[in-house]
Amino acid sequence: MMPSFPSPIAHALRANDSAPDQSYSASREFITRFNTALALGALLLMLLLPSRTLQGQTVDVAITGTTVIHTHERSVLEDATVLIHNGEITWVGPAAEARIPKNCHIVNGSGKYLIPGLVDGHIHFFQSGGLYTRPDAIDLRNRVPYQQDQEWIRGNIDDVFRRYLRCGITTVIDVGGPMWNFDVRASARKSVTAPRVYLTGPLIASYQPEALTTDDPPIIRVNSPEEARALVRKEAESEPDFIKVWYVVSKKLSLGREEFYPTMEAIVDESRKAGLPVWVHATELETARAAVQAGADVLVHDITDTEVDEAFLALARERGVIVMPTLWVFQSYNLVFAGQFEPTAEELGLAHPTILGSLFDMRELKEEDTPERLRGLRERTDLHKPQDVLLRNVRKMHGAGIRIAAGTDAGNIGVLHGPSLFRELQLMHAAGMDAHDILISATLNGAALLGREKQIGSIEREKIADLVLLNSNPLDDIGNISDIALVVKGGTVIHPDTLITPSPENVAQMQLNAYNATNLEAFLSVYSPDVEVFTFPDTPIYTGIEEMRRVYQEFFAFAPDVHCRLVNRITYENMVMDREIVTGVPGKETVEAVAIYEIDEGLIRKVWFIQ
């Protein structure tokens, strides 16, 4: 017998066949009845509740009794105190020897673990991480215009900043984008709730995707060494932190390694004149070798086509090249395109809900709407396993003494700004790196990408106080790096829960994302412990989170392939009304339904299903 399940997105197996417009009309009448009460309630909340503002400290800070995990050396200092003055670390040592100044803000670090602020060495602000951000990879501009994606990104940059800090990432490096990248860097420098931003301008490339061509393109093809030199000089006027080259070669493009090599040499030469390092995207062994021979300082990806040889290892080690493997991005595209993307708990909680939600849209595409080259992915069962060649190459390069830095390529489809770094570190562990080396790769080696090891990346005297206090030991499990108690940026102490305060609309989207992921814990996390669920207008169904747990645990087991498509949404103050179409429920082809959520202080407290 089919179980009867009330649904927060009204999948509602109870929904009747009444016309959607009639349901919407009833919902509007319901909301109108609440108008006066909502307004009065909002006023009382404004008057009576303290505001939730960023808890920053501009005074001296002492983090006491903590365990310091060093990255400039492989050592751990237990029961330690770290003193901070004017945003700089002034003392690190045993707690018993610390001389804490008067009027110092004391952070009790007992039972906790202090690491340097994390560095994501490879991101792209011009990409959202959502399904519609790379029309050159999958062209869905008929669903969401590319310009709309770009406008969303620019309108939500401050939110992206906050999500990075919430993940303990105090420094990010944008590895190529439009010239408006430089506006993003300027904005970050003015904000206490932004990470330190370093970046470059457009990628100087051997190939330019037509779908990404705009008035301010992120990638610019150069057709000769002279054009390349001119573009380097133009970008240098905006004071980039490095120059980025997209060394893409293929038979399809009728472009080989040798044809672009003189241009590669010209880019390096012109960049050296401007005092700028050169970072190169080169994922084939021979293009990577050529890039290093031409003078590249950083390789921004792992090598994907074959296993690295001893000659390459020796060359890269001799030249002091730093490599960022970006392992996750090589999986994320295929998993999303196959409809097999499964967000982690960190992504469900910390990624932007709208962007994460777009990744589930792939499940809505009919086979005829899916590009032919992607159709076979849906039948693949090996996509969750990283490619062996990627892991072997990281293991070989790390073992050969080549410096490895952590970077995600965030902004690409399925690589979500902020929490994707946690995926990347887990994959580096799968490649054979131990937790301490991974932590070094995500801190001091990230600083080395910029030549800033003397300023950030380790917990030492006279360094900038960019720090993360963890509740759990990352050396026991690198996954504990997401268990964040506090973030310190330039000496300012920031409580994580002040960085992201989801709007009612975002809370509704978070539960929808968790529902589509059939992740019970993430789903329940946005509901009040005493949540009340009704059939509209006032017939009780059940009360309390434990009853909800029982209902949805059974439901997700019954319908593991359930998917809810949001048709439209109305938000009024703390009320959110969603109209959805649900598929994947055994015994029902589709279910159309409407649900109303009352949200207070970031939790859903009441739900009404319209029948």
Please describe the structure with a list of short key phrases separated by commas or semicolons.
Nuclear Transport Factor 2, Chain: A; globular; 19 helices; 8-stranded mixed sheet; alpha/beta; 7-stranded parallel sheet; 611 residues; TIM Barrel; 3 domains; Urease, subunit C, domain 1
CATH class of the largest domain: Alpha Beta
Pick out the low-confidence regions.
Answer: 1-57
Structural Rg: 26 Å
Find the CATH topology of the largest domain: TIM Barrel
Overall average residue pLDDT = 90
Structural class of the secondary elements? Answer: alpha/beta
Topology:
Layout: H1 20-48, E1 61-69, E2 76-85, E3 88-94, E4 105-108, E5 113-116, E6 118-123, H2 146-155, H3 157-166, E7 169-174, H4 181-189, E8 196-199, E9 203-205, E10 219-221, H5 225-236, E11 243-246, H6 257-273, E12 278-281, H7 285-294, E13 298-299, H8 310-319, E14 322-323, H9 329-337, H10 345-350, H11 353-359, H12 372-375, H13 388-399, E15 403-404, H14 420-430, H15 435-441, H16 444-449, E16 467-470, E17 484-489, E18 492-494, H17 504-516, H18 520-524, E19 527-535, E20 539-543, H19 545-558, E21 563-572, E22 575-583, E23 591-600, E24 603-610
Parallel strand pairs: 1-4, 1-5, 6-7, 7-8, 9-10, 9-11, 11-12, 12-13, 13-14, 14-15, 19-24
Antiparallel strand pairs: 1-2, 2-3, 5-16, 16-17, 17-18, 19-20, 21-22, 22-23, 23-24
